[in-house]
Amino acid sequence: MLLVAAALITASMHSLGVVESPVAPATTSVAIVRTAAIVHDPATASRPVMTGGQDTVDTADLRAARGRTFLDDLVAIAPDRLAHAATEADVVATAMDHPPTAAEVTTWWSGLASADRARLERDAPVVVGNLDGVPYTVRDHVNRAVLAAGLADPHTAASESAMLGQVRESLRRVADTPPKSLITLDTRGAGRAAIAIGDLDTAADVTVVVPGMFFTVTGQMVDFTATAGDLYAEQATLAPVAAPASGTGVAVVAWMGYRTPDLSNILSLDLAKTGAARLERTVDGIRELRDGQQPRLGIVAHSYGSTTALMALASGHMSADSLTVLGSPGSDVTNASELAVSSGEVFVGGAHWDPIAGSGYFGTDPGVAGFGSTVLDLAGGVDPEDAGDLFRRPVGHNDYLKPGTASLHDVALIAVGRGDMVRDGIRQGNGRGEGVVGASPDMYLVRPQDLQPRD
Question: Which residue from 17, 74, 214, 235 has the least number of CB within 10 angstroms?
Fold first, then answer.
């Protein structure tokens, strides 16, 4: 049944233009920054670096190093070897797949001399740009340099160029919209990327959006980033009713930070396990850099991404202030008490005609009675003044975060700490978009602009 449902969803995504066809073949190369693409500082280019009194290390040492030693070796390696060594497959794999902890990275980076930081940004951007714990402004700067260099290099493979082109398009910003930061860029294989909308360093509310099956950087990064932008806009309108938190404003991360499954591997949980570990590191990085002023952090996970997020939050390595899962095929988590999420802040949404939601393909459906979650009623609301739709109900598996839907509005309320407005609404129905949401004054106070008829 899962394969049948997945095939139907794939077909619908193609028909809606969500999936590009054909998808560019995967590539195993890593975008290498050519020196012409980055400004060099002659004052630091030839200075030998010594760390902890040790002699300068060689490339073999860096390949074998792990943890804090890996970080120290990056600084201690001979300056004329760093640029090449930092793009070797083993070194890149350590930085991206088996990195030091965010705490180790934060301590290391803050203790470096400014000249050492400049040299690492210039000569090891692929590594620096993907280390959780490095400041996001730095990661954005060096990842954009890698992006520009890869697109400018005539030797870049066509599949990689297509991937990078989608990332570049996703980063485009129009007037009066929040800033975007490229905080992850991995061109290996099918690729990974993460784009933050808003300021992760100061936002009171940080939301990480985790995609489900069939999402690739080449195929969906533009659409996925736009979806994160829609959630950002919805959260921003709720500022007058947002619960207090440390910081100002909101930030939403379009996190395509793991490889999502396709029809060849949808029945396996291997990608979810890998994705859970990557999600844990991403959240750890946010928390380390906001030490002393923690934001309200929410996870919004769709489809297979919900299985990934449930695994991460049950691992003991990650916590969140709220979790919202949409169209979930379930997981081996049997109760909300197993999740490191604030009490009463686990929410589950299932749309009308979504064959995945509530299926329990991968274990317990988080929306079942006894799990301990709040099941969202996504039927939509009615404006009694003109009998027009206030919020339309989502339909199918890919409609949850579309503007104007009851689901997007509920997700935004939860993200700004107002899950109480979702829980306390006057609702009847089965939680799968079939019931009726009774109109309440709070709904109109929250979104007065939505009293106007929608197109």
Answer: 17
- List CB contacts of 356: < 8 A, sequence separation 6 or more: 5, 9, 303, 327, 328, 329, 397
CB atoms within 10 A of CB 323: 26
Q: What is the pLDDT of residues 190-245, one digit of tens each?
A: 999 999 999 999 999 999 999 999 999 999 999 999 999 999 999 999 999 999 99
Q: Note the pTM of the prediction, 2 decimals.
A: 0.84
In degrees, to the nearest 5, what angle opens at C-alpha 309 toward C-alphas 303 and 311? 115
Q: Which two tokens stand for residue 110?
A: 């803050």
CA-only gyration radius of the chain, Å:
23
Strand order in the sheet with 380-382: 389-392, 380-382, 436-437, 427-428
C-alpha dihedral sign at 266, 130, 278, 193: negative
Query: Is 55 exposed, middle or buried (CB count within 10 Å of its CB: 0-12, 13-18, 19+)?
Result: exposed
Q: How confident is the model at residue 7 (pLDDT cuts 50, 70, 90)?
A: low
- If residue 433 lies in a helix (H) or strand (E), which one and from where to where? none
Question: For the chain, how long is the longest CA-to-CA vector?
Answer: 77
342: left (phi over 0), alpha (psi -120 to 50) or beta: beta
H or E element in which residue 163 lies = helix 158-170
For residue 181, give the 3-state DSSP assignment.
strand
Give the pairing of strands 346-349 and 374-375.
Answer: parallel
